[in-house]
Amino acid sequence: MTKVEIYTTPTCPYCHAAKALLGDKGVAFEEIIVLDPALRAAMTQRAHGRRTVPQIFVGETHVGGYDDLAALERQGKLDPLLEGAA
């Protein structure tokens, strides 16, 4: 499996939902908490201007937020993304 990174804040319910979905699939991920303005700015730049959390990356692929992650799962495209970019 490829590296998964998720930018979050502690109180974000969508962040918790995204982490739960990945956890249920047994996916290890690196969580980057963006309370520091410099980390938030780095996330925004990497996420093509998106400032909301979570922002999820699978390898170099920007998945987007929780809704985007859940849509990939419903479409059966998440597992191949997780396995294919390793």
Primary descriptors:
86 residues; alpha+beta; Glutaredoxin; four-stranded mixed sheet; 4 helices; 4 strands; 44% helix; 20% strand; globular; redox-active center; disulfide bond; cytoplasm; Thioredoxin-like_sf
Commentary on this structure:
- One of its GO terms (molecular function) is glutathione disulfide oxidoreductase activity.
- This is Glutaredoxin.
- The N and C termini lie close together (5 Å).
- With 86 residues, the chain is an alpha+beta fold.
- Strands 2-1-3-4 form a four-stranded mixed beta sheet, sandwiched between helices.
- It has one domain: Glutaredoxin, CATH 3.40.30.
- The chain is built from four helices and four strands.
- The chain is globular, with a radius of gyration of 12 Å.
- 44% of the residues lie in helices and 20% in strands.
In terms of DSSP E residues, the strand content is: 15-25%
The main β sheet shows up as: 4 strands, mixed
> What kind of assembly state do the chains in view correspond to?
single chain
What's the average pLDDT? 94
Total DSSP E strands: 4
Total count of domains = 1
Helix-strand topology string: EHEHEEHH
Could you please say which CATH topology applies here?
Glutaredoxin
| Helix residue percentage | 40-55%
Gross CATH architecture? 3-Layer(aba) Sandwich
Report the span from N to C terminus.
Answer: 5 Å
Please give the radius of gyration in angstroms: 12 Å
CATH class division: Alpha Beta
Number of helices: 4
Low-confidence stretches: none
What is the H level of CATH, i.e. the homologous superfamily? Glutaredoxin
Shape: globular
Derived structural class: alpha+beta
